[in-house]
Write a structure and sequence with these properties.
Two copies of one chain form a homodimer. Chain A is an all-alpha fold. Helices cover about 70% and strands about 0% of the residues of chain A. The first copy, chain A, contains eight helices and no strands. In chain A, α4 packs across α8. The first copy, chain A, starts with 8 loop residues before the first helix and ends with a helix. At the A-B interface, α7 and α8 of A face α7 and α8 of B. Chain A binds a DNA duplex through loops.
DNA sequence: GTCTATAGTACGATAGAC
DNA sequence: GTCTATCGTACTATAGAC
């Protein structure tokens, strides 16, 4: 297909999202201007509006895409007992988050910059993830494998602990990813089973 | 002392800080304007500069004050064994954070909006807190009370888990503060001792 | 699809009156 | 200590040319 010089929709669209994600994660949604995003993509600011109706929609799309990818990864949850499933969840959560730091970060930090409608949808998706974790804890509790006084609180505590990894882990650091996963699994296992 | 009408330094100064803290926590530093702060205090924007050299200094002062209060609370750490000290830390962390939500929140969210120099100082203060927690874990490890493969990782994991409470706890909710503290202490104890 | 140009608004910070 | 007024700059978003 013949195409005008400077027309690169298939490349430019993803690049806009990529740069926006990076810049939002680094400086925060409110602190990043459309001009700044455009500059990093190699466009004038006005041209961004070919790819997003406005700045808010750009943020929302990035956050929703992140959550949808996180949730679709849950389809690989292995069959088996709650203990095996919980270990898989711990490792999946840590490794997915570490390989998608920017997405994780904006989903944490930018909730308050969403419109009310968009906020509701992202919170809903987050709830689906929390429910998936809690379902494992409930199953283990019912079979007497776990000793958990409150499965919802335990769910939030486990997720919070695992989220913490992203704040300090460095690939060049002292501990390998496998070791970090393993130590966290040990702590989570002991926290929910007492053994 | 006679005083001009509208002169209220002793009242206005704290009120500026109070409103700034509230607004920064609610909307984010970058999204809040000096005009907005002034309006909530009952001033014109220019008058704010009687109380802070600029917006950045206002943020930094709020964050530093929060960390200094958190750290000065550590002076009440009871003498005794590592297990008793760790329980105290868990309860202190949860209850202090829940009673100073806005301060906790901006110290989490606004690090990236600090100048490099200010960022260094806040990170240093945070490090002092982390070191205090780790010292307890190290003491327990040395006495054979804890079984922790890596005390630094365990420190970060415990702090992350406890920080999570602020994201979901509501006073009007299902669980009392005491119960939340107690359940978390149980999980932390089991995570570090395996019993 | 991207550009230039711009409308309309808001920002942080300062100057000088009172 | 607070006000009014304002400087200089930056913002989101749109219009119209190519």
């Amino acid at each position: 297909m013949a195409r005008k010089a400077g027309s690169h929709a298939e490349i430019t669209g993803p690049k806009v999202r990529e740069e926006a994600l990076r810049l939002f994660a680094q400086y925060g949604y409110a602190a990043v201007s459309m001009r700044q995003i455009a500059k990093h993509v190699g466009l004038q600011a006005g041209a961004l509006y070919t790819y997003t109706p406005d700045k808010q929609a750009l943020l929302f799309d990035l956050m929703r895409d992140h959550m949808q990818k996180v949730l679709s990864g849950l389809e690989d949850l292995p069959e088996g007992g709650p203990v095996e499933q919980l270990e898989w969840m711990v490792r999946y959560h840590i490794s997915y988050n570490l390989s998608h730091k920017d997405g994780v970060f904006i989903n944490y930090m930018e909730l308050r910059n969403l419109s009310e409608e968009n906020h509701l949808e992202i919170s809903r998706l987050r709830g689906v993830y929390e429910d998936a974790v809690e379902a494992i804890l409930i199953a283990g509790q019912e079979r007497g494998l776990f000793q958990i006084p409150d499965t919802r609180l335990a769910t939030m505590a486990v997720i919070a602990m695992l989220n913490g990894v992203n704040t300090w882990y460095r690939e060049s650091g002292r501990l390998s990813l496998e070791r970090v996963e393993q130590i966290h699994w040990n702590m989570v296992r002991r926290a929910v089973t007492g053994s």
